Every structure is written in structure tokens, then in C-alpha cells.
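Render DUF4440 domain-containing protein in 3D.
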Amino acid sequence: MAEMVDAGGHAGGVEEHLAFYVRTFNEGDADAINRLYTEEAVSVWEPGKPLSGAERKANLAEFLTLRPKLTAKIRESHVTTDTALLSVDWTMEIDGEDGKRESFGGLATDVLRRGADGNWRYAIDDPYGDPRNATAG
């Protein structure tokens, strides 16, 4: 397994990228998470509402204040030299408005690009890539 490096992401495969993302997400470090995305990345954290640029970054930072806890596992991956398509099963727990812990999840569709530095970064992050598999409750 490749060794993780700080600042720009990590060396290694898409499995290591996802593990690093989950750990960083659960630590609530928006700056570190944003380094795992391309500058022009698109995230669809709410079905049908893609975000990019400063809006994506601000939305992520605000969401992390809720202290969500993420788990994720790659169901399927297709990797070329510098592009990867992932299907990822994920679940998340978060405190609801009533203070009770809520969980939800789905099957994500993610596209990653490998940069010149060898690090994978999200170009498209769509947690609800297959809306039929999204769950709440």
C-alpha cells in the first residue's frame, strides 16, 4: 500500500484516495478535503443541484460544522492512466434538527483525475449518482 503524503493529497491508488478522503472528512478539515478535488470539480451533494468553485467549497465548510461521520467502500472501479470512475457505497451519520442521530447513504458515482504530482483528485463527486439506491432514516 502506498504511503500517504500531506498537503496535496496522497500517492497510491483510488482505494487509498478514498480512505484518505473518509479520514479527512471525519476530521472535519475542509481545507484538506478541498485539496482532494480539482479546481474545476463539480459536486452534487443535493440531487440535481451541482456545485463548483467557491460555492462548492463554502457548502462543504458549512456542512462539516455539523460533524458528520462518513463510511465508504468502493463497489466497482475502472481506472486508466489518469482517470478513474468509481461506484462507492457510502453511509453517513449526522445530528438531526431534533438532536437525534440520523443516518443516510447511497451509491455514489465519482470521477477522479490523476494530477502531474501523481495524486488522485475528484473531478465529479456525486453521492447520489444512482438515486434509486439513496436511503434516509
